[in-house]
Amino acid sequence: MNIEAHLNNLRISPRKVLMVAKMLKGLPAQEAIVQLDRELRRAALPLEKLITSAIANAEHNFQAIPENLIVSKVTVGEGRKLKRWMPRAQGRATPIWKRMSRVHIVLREVDPELRAATSKGKTPHAKRDMSEPAQEKASKTKSFSDSHRSGNIKKTSGTRSSRSIFHRKAV
User: Fold this and answer.
1) What is the tens place of the pLDDT at every residue in 88-144?
2) Calpha distance 37→156 (Å, rounded)
3) Kind and range of the H or E element at 133?
4) How far is Cα 141 from Cα 34, in angstroms, rounded to an integer?
5) What DSSP letter does each residue of 24-53 carry, written as one string?
6) Residue 38, class by beta-carbon neighbours within 10 Å (0-12 exposed, 13-18 middle, 19+ buried)?
7) Which helix (H) or strand (E) holds 134?
8) How far is CA 61 from each of CA 52, 58, 80, 88, 125, rounded to the nearest angstrom?
9) Which of 42, 64, 87, 141 is most buried, judged by most C-beta within 10 A?
10) pLDDT per residue over 35-74, tens digit each?
11) What's the pLDDT at 136?
């Protein structure tokens, strides 16, 4: 079964997003999240959120197991463009294109029978007891976040070492 997730109007150019997205294809979903957590490029954070959302949808809608999912397809396309102008000499202007990108990720189950075997034990939403879903959801979230934090590497968003080293103006 394929699980799809879309991200539209990402305010990063498609060329930059594609460089990060290429490394995800064929990886298990959990490993892709760890790779994106370690990546320093700006496109890593939205892609990480997209894969996390796709995993959550797979768990909720199809009772899939996150360890059973792989990233089978990643597509990065050109989105809308914001048109800006740079003033030039003699009243002229040159265009500046602020590009956006659209990302489409497809997750696929490695073993469809593993999902079917686990979903047999679960009860449908209508027949569940009111206290069970909260406990199951909490346990799934806890196990997912524990496996996600296994790398023990914190990402510092916003401040990067390369930006602090190189200054544009001379002192």
Assistant:
1) 999 999 999 999 999 999 999 998 887 655 555 454 444 444 455 555 554 444 444
2) 10
3) helix 131-148
4) 16
5) GTTSBHHHHHHHHHH--STTHHHHHHHHHH
6) exposed
7) helix 131-148
8) 14, 5, 31, 54, 11
9) 64
10) 999 999 999 999 999 999 999 999 999 999 999 999 999 9
11) 53
What the block records as the tokens of 63 is 């009772």
Pairing of strands 69-87, 93-109: antiparallel
Tokens of 124: 């449908």
pTM above 0.90, yes or no: no
Cα–Cα nearest to 108, from 74, 136, 142, 77: 74
- Cβ atoms of 10 and 79 within 8 Å: the answer is yes
Contact present, 119 and 136 (Cβ < 8 Å): no
pLDDT of residue 94: 97
Q: Which residues pair with 82 in a beta bridge?
A: 98
Q: Which amino acid is at 14?
A: P
Question: CA 19 to CA 71: how far, in whole Å?
Answer: 16
What is the C-alpha to C-alpha distance for residues 27 and 73, in angstroms, rounded to an integer? Answer: 10
Tokens of 61: 């809608």
Q: What single-letter amino acid sits at 69?
A: L
